[in-house]
UniProtKB/TrEMBL annotation:
<dbReference type="GO" id="GO:0005524">
    <property type="term" value="F:ATP binding"/>
</dbReference>
<comment type="function">
    <text>Catalyzes the attachment of tryptophan to tRNA(Trp).</text>
</comment>
<feature type="compositionally biased region" description="Low complexity">
    <location>
        <begin position="18"/>
        <end position="32"/>
    </location>
</feature>
<feature type="short sequence motif" description="'HIGH' region">
    <location>
        <begin position="100"/>
        <end position="108"/>
    </location>
</feature>
<feature type="region of interest" description="Disordered">
    <location>
        <begin position="1"/>
        <end position="35"/>
    </location>
</feature>
<dbReference type="InterPro" id="IPR002306">
    <property type="entry name" value="Trp-tRNA-ligase"/>
</dbReference>
<dbReference type="GO" id="GO:0005737">
    <property type="term" value="C:cytoplasm"/>
</dbReference>
<dbReference type="GO" id="GO:0004830">
    <property type="term" value="F:tryptophan-tRNA ligase activity"/>
</dbReference>
<feature type="short sequence motif" description="'KMSKS' region">
    <location>
        <begin position="396"/>
        <end position="400"/>
    </location>
</feature>
<feature type="compositionally biased region" description="Basic and acidic residues">
    <location>
        <begin position="1"/>
        <end position="17"/>
    </location>
</feature>
<keyword id="KW-0963">Cytoplasm</keyword>
<keyword id="KW-0067">ATP-binding</keyword>
<dbReference type="GO" id="GO:0006436">
    <property type="term" value="P:tryptophanyl-tRNA aminoacylation"/>
</dbReference>
<dbReference type="Pfam" id="PF00579">
    <property type="entry name" value="tRNA-synt_1b"/>
</dbReference>
<keyword id="KW-0436">Ligase</keyword>
<keyword id="KW-0648">Protein biosynthesis</keyword>
<dbReference type="InterPro" id="IPR020653">
    <property type="entry name" value="Tryptophan-tRNA-ligase_arc"/>
</dbReference>
Length: 518
């Protein structure tokens, strides 16, 4: 979940497209939170990992950030939950973290901007320094971590994060976070971490502990009450998001599902029961019987286990209902749920069926009973995914290759020089450029315009793109303009960092832990 410094980003799109192409040096769709992250084709993330295309929800976003409009933010998981809360004025939160392994750079600015935009939309905002992860997974000393942590937080404040309306923290000094991590650890096991992250017998325990701490980070905004929460990250962090969603569900007292009969079914079997019910239900008073549904399913589908269950249920009516499954409820909470369900209901060992509630009302009731009886009531966290930035020298952007990235701490003149020396998507000669046009979609310099330098001015970003691909804009002039804008941005940002220093020193966050750890 924490944003590392070895991010590499696919080419920006002039419009909000979500079907990116192949990145130079890409190695497929392996998502490794600690590796050198590449994504060969963003479309594969939709197919292989269930990430949804962001352009499907873009029309529902109020005053969308330019990163959303331009397709830099390309995917999401259940972001509609957050949008619904945002629209209705209900509590919601945004959180992301940063592993302080080097200077903050322009790739990190994407996440800074996403946190700040959500904060300005009224969400509770959280930003954290993943110092335990940096120490355990990357082996950084506490002195190095202290130095980098300060730099990340100064840039976040300089870009507009309001600490009075949000929370900044370090993993290592947040005791409620660590207590939550301990609780979450009881719901995870080594085999699971091995399957997700490739851990083996050589993986140290601290590294595994840092994973559980990140799960606690993702759910931390809900400690003061359940609320939809969005985690803006690069797609390499998706394994963390998926595990956190699983653990949030495992911590819940109740699971709420749709059902049709007294016996348990999985999602696929429920779909077949819905088909049978729709086919057999009539406007009369005669109920659909399970034995009738068994005949229908046997004739239409290959589902022998479901047919057997239906036949065993015999004359039991097949009726739509909402089911509350007891996962971790105390006896008192289960009894309170039974009492709270209005209308017709059936009580079984381990679950309750309600016939007069829809799924949303049932989910709300289950969460309410859980919180009233000491549970967390977690919402599964949502997430946003942004494209990786291409390094200025081509290939991946890496903190270990200074020429490939622009640090937010770079001297403005150094930033200027890096841009003028950057690789472009231009043709071999000016004549070919005028004849064929440039390849803006393959150009790290155009990315700088789309991701940063054009800021909120979509017309400017579009004009740069059109002039490039139309052959009107030559690379030398384009880089000179971009380099000048970058110099201005860095000068302005660093002036604001200086202004933020006093404010950071006044906050309740310890940025000098090294001496206390010796």
């Amino acid at each position: 979940m924490s944003e590392d410094t070895d991010h590499h980003d696919e080419t920006a799109r002039r419009e909000a497209a979500t079907d990116g192409g192949s990145a130079a040096g890409a190695d497929g769709t392996t998502l490794d939170p600690w590796g050198s992250s590449t994504v060969e084709d963003y479309r594969k993330l939709f197919e292989e990992f269930g990430i949804e295309a962001f352009d499907e929800v873009l029309p529902e976003v109020p005053d969308p950030h330019y990163l959303m409009r331009r397709g830099v933010i390309f995917g999401h998981r259940e972001y509609r939950d957050v949008l619904r809360a945002m629209r209705d004025g209900d509590p919601a939160a945004v959180l992301s973290g940063f592993m302080p392994t080097g200077d903050p750079h322009i790739g990190h600015k994407l996440v800074f901007d996403e946190i700040i935009w959500h904060q300005r939309q009224g969400l509770d905002a959280y930003a954290l320094i993943a110092d335990l992860e940096a120490h355990s997974a990357r082996g950084l000393s506490w002195a190095e971590i202290d130095e980098h942590a300060r730099d990340y937080l100064l840039s976040l404040l300089a870009l507009g994060f309001d600490p009075e309306e949000g929370e900044l923290y370090r993993q290592s000094t947040n005791r409620p976070l660590q207590d939550l991590a301990f609780e979450l650890g009881s719901k995870a096991n080594f085999s699971e971490l091995q399957a997700i992250y490739g851990f083996d017998g050589e993986t140290d325990v601290s590294h595994m502990q840092s994973v559980v701490t990140q799960m606690a980070d993702i759910l931390y905004p809900q400690l003061d009450g359940p609320k939809p929460t969005v985690i803006p990250v690069g797609p390499d962090q998706d394994p963390h998001v998926r595990l956190a969603r699983d653990l949030a569900a495992r911590m819940r007292y109740f699971k709420v599902t749709e059902a049709y009969a007294s016996f348990e079914t999985d999602d696929a079997e429920r779909a077949l029961l819905a088909d049978a019910y729709d086919a057999l239900a009539t406007e009369g008073d005669d109920p659909v019987r399970c034995e009738d549904a068994a005949a229908h399913v046997a004739a239409a589908f290959d589902a022998p286990a479901l047919v057997e269950s239906l036949e065993n249920a015999g004359m039991e009516p097949l009726r739509p209902r909402v089911r509350f499954l007891d996962r971790n409820a105390t006896p008192e909470a289960f009894e309170a749920l039974i009492e709270a369900v209005d209308g017709e209901k059936r009580v079984y060992e381990g679950h309750v069926d309600a016939f007069d509630l829809d799924h949303d009302a049932a989910a709300h009731l289950a969460r309410e009973v859980e919180v009233d009886h000491g549970g967390y009531g977690f919402y599964a966290p949502s997430s946003l995914y942004h494209r990786f930035m291409t390094g200025l020298t081509g290939g991946k952007m890496s903190s270990s290759v200074p020429a490939s990235h622009i640090s937010l701490l770079d001297d403005p003149e150094e930033g200027y020089e890096k841009v003028t020396s950057a690789t472009t998507g231009g043709r071999e000669t000016a004549e070919l450029q005028r004849e064929l046009g440039g390849e803006a979609d393959e150009c790290p310099v155009y990315e700088l315009y789309a991701y940063l330098l054009a800021a909120d001015d979509d017309e400017f970003a579009t004009r740069v793109y059109d002039e490039c691909v139309g052959g009107e804009r030559l690379c030398g002039d384009c880089k000179e303009q971009a380099a000048t804008l970058m110099r201005e941005f860095l000068a302005d940002h660093q002036e604001k960092r200086e202004e933020a220093a006093e404010r950071l020193d006044s906050l309740d966050i310890d940025l000098d832990l090294d001496s206390s750890r010796r």
